[in-house]
Amino acid sequence: MDIQLKGNSKSPVIIIGCFHGDEPQGKYLTEKYLANKPDTSLLFIPCLNEYGFKHNIRTNSNGVDLNRNFPTKNWIESEKDNFYGGKEPASEEETRFVIDTIERVKPKLILTLHAPYKVVNYDGPASEISEKISEIIGYPVEESIGYPTPGSFGTWAGVERNIPTITLELDEEADIKELEEPVFKIFELLENY
Question: Is the pTM of this model over 0.90?
Answer without folding.
Answer: yes
